[in-house]
Amino acid sequence: MDLDEIMVWTRTERLGLAEFLDDLDEHEWLADSLCSGWTVHEVLAHVTLSNRVTFWPTIAGMIRARGNWNRMTERMARDRAARYTPAELIAQLREGAGSARRAPGAGPLDPLVDTMIHGQDIARPLGRGRAMPTEQAVVALEHVLRSPFYGAEQRVHGVRLIATDADWSAGAGTDEIRGPLSDLLLMATGRTAGLDGVTGTGVKRIANRL
Fold it and tell me: Is the CATH code 3.30.1050.20 the one for domain 134-209?
C-alpha cells in the first residue's frame, strides 16, 4: 500500500479518536476497557505511546518485564496514565496524529490498527458506538490476519470469515463466521467482545480458543 495513504488514514483515525474522547466524563475514564485490567484512561495512555517509544526504552522495558511484552506495555501504560491527565493525553494524541514514528518492530499499518482496535476497547464497554471506515477496516483486518504479532492465524485457523457489511471474506474451512468487520477485527485480535456481533458454525470453535 501507499505509505502516504496509510499515514492519512492513521492521522484521521487518531484525530477522530481524540474528538470521541473529548466527550468522556470522569466516571468513564475510570471504567474498565476491553483490555483486561486496563482502565479507559490507561488504554489512551498506551495509544499515545505508539509514536513516542524508541528502541532503547523498549529494550529497558523488556528487561524490566523479564522479556514479557504484554507486561511491559501494561506497565508503560499505567506509568503514563499516572503521569498525565486524560486531557493532557488527548492533547498528545492530537499533537502526534500526523507523526510517522513507530514503536520498534512495528510496521506502517500497526499504528492504524492500534488506534482502531483501542478505540473499540474504549467505546464498547461504555456503551458508545464508534464506527470503523470500511476500506480501513478491511486493510486492518487483512494485516492482522497476516501478521504473526497478533496471533490471529491460530485463533481463526480452519474457519472462514465473512463480512456482512462489506464484500470481503478470508480463510478456508468447513466452519464459517459472519459479522461486521469491526467484530471480526476484535475477534481476530483476541477480544471476546467481538463474538457478540457474529454468527455461524465457527463461533463456538473460536470462543474456545479465546
Answer: yes
